[in-house]
Amino acid sequence: MADAASRLRSLAEQVLGTPLPVRVRAWDGSEAGPPDAPALVFHNRRALRRLLFKPGELGLARAWVSGDLDIDGDLYTALEAVAGLVWERGDDARTLAQAVRDPAVRAAARDLLKLAGPPLPPAPPREEIRRPRRRLHTRRTDRRAVSHHYDVGNDFYEIVLGPSMVYSCAYWEDGGTLESAQRDKLGLVCAKLGLKEGQRLLDVGCGWGSMAIHAAREHGVRVVGVTLSQEQAAHARKRVADEGLTDRVEIRVQDYRDVVDGPFDAVSSIGMAEHVGAARYLEYASRLYALLKPGGRLLNHQIARRPERDETAYEVDRFIDSYVFPDGELAPLGTTVTQLERAGFEVRDVEALREHYARTLRRWVVNLEADWDRAVRLAGFGRARVWRLYMAASALAFERNRIGVNQVLAVRTPESGASGLPPRPRTWHG
Q: Does the keyword Metal-binding apply (predicted)?
């Protein structure tokens, strides 16, 4: 069909009930839409079939990951432009199955299907995880989910994260580098935990060992770091040996639920609790409470979502669950604090770092794009595209206040009531 772009754009606007805020470039080379706007590039009809079969976030993700759909122009501008059509409407809003009752719109939807052509539907990209939604967050399913996300390859993560190898929100100052911001974040965590020489620290979800190494080297503590990722553990152990810290740092491939050699003076959990799941969160908090000495501190660094008016209607992010963090769940900050308190903790400080995570993610995207060809060789075309979309979209989600990230400092306060915290705890920022 000649001028497929104009036809596609016109029909899509009829179905959606709103003008498209982007240009459209179709498989026949035709274009339609605002000349200064970023373009959605439909390399083939299959891209349209993917969007029609799964309207909303999942269809967009499948078309992007497979390479059937691309963006010509600034990625962030394009994602902001389509946010109102995808993320802010929800996957079920105005789908072809329930669209509108207007016969003209139903006719437009039928014409879109004709324009897409057979066959329908296309198979999902091989990077998509499909599994039954039964018995989430067992030890076996958690190992599988962690392996999917973290065992992509240490060399790939070195491209994205840089030398710090810290896969969580940095703590920025104006003019700082990613490495200095990550070092400052680790220092902030250690200050909040009040680490002193000779103490024992449990680092839950220790990643590539950065927190464990920093705490042992800078504060003289003995650290047990646990992860479910074999690749992370191997990399972390090598870094520990290279730093000459094998007498102070032990890295284990172990579920936190299986740690039995407490008590510890402090526990750090940085970017791990998102994997725990709502049904297991009280168990998680109670287990960490039991592993602490009286007076011991927990620093829980965790992404939070905004609460729903009806929490029973909450659904996990389809793209994130299918391609990035299988079985991951975000909770509102208030829910997290409540569960920590139910486990026995006294919550003493909450610090929001939302803008810091947006800046961190944008820096990671810069790193990935700067070494794109090597990243594709290491992780594969589809997986590299998953990470680029996930990090860019997440940066915008933090900037738009759709999600946040918080450091919660909690204490296993002894019966005497002496928390051990300084009278002005925020002096750790000095």
A: no
Is the model's pLDDT at 62 over the cut of 60?
yes
128 in a structural domain: no
pLDDT at 282 over 70: yes
Least confident interval from 32-36, 131-135, 182-186: 131-135
Q: How far is CA 189 from CA 41, 412, 428, in A?
A: 44, 17, 9
d(CA 317, CA 312): 15
> Is 27 among the domain residues?
yes
**What is the domain extent for residue 111?**
4-116
pLDDT over threshold 80, residue 88 = no
What pLDDT sits at residue 102? 81
Residue 78 has what DSSP assignment?
H
Rounded to whole angstroms, the Cα distance separating 317 from 328 reads 9
Q: Each residue of 270-304: b (16+ CB within 10 Å) or e?
A: bbbbbbbbeebbeebbbbbbebbeebbbbbbbbbb
The model's pTM: 0.92
Order of strands, sheet of 249-253, starting from the edge strand that comes earlier in the sequence: 249-253, 222-227, 200-204, 264-270, 292-305, 403-411, 346-352
Question: What is the number of domains present in the chain?
Answer: 2
Peptide bond into 121 cis (omega under 30): yes
> Do residues 159 and 368 lie in contact, with contact meaning Cβ atoms separated by under 8 Å?
yes
The yes-or-no verdict on residue 150 having pLDDT over 90 is no
Beta strands in 336-430 (DSSP E): 346-352, 403-411
Same domain, 51 and 171: no
Q: What is the pLDDT of residue 34?
A: 93
Whether 361 and 320 have beta carbons less than 8 Å apart is answered as no
Q: What is the C-alpha to C-alpha distance for residues 183 and 171, in angstroms, rounded to an integer?
A: 8
pLDDT at 190: 98
Average pLDDT, the chain: 90
70 with 213, same domain?
A: no
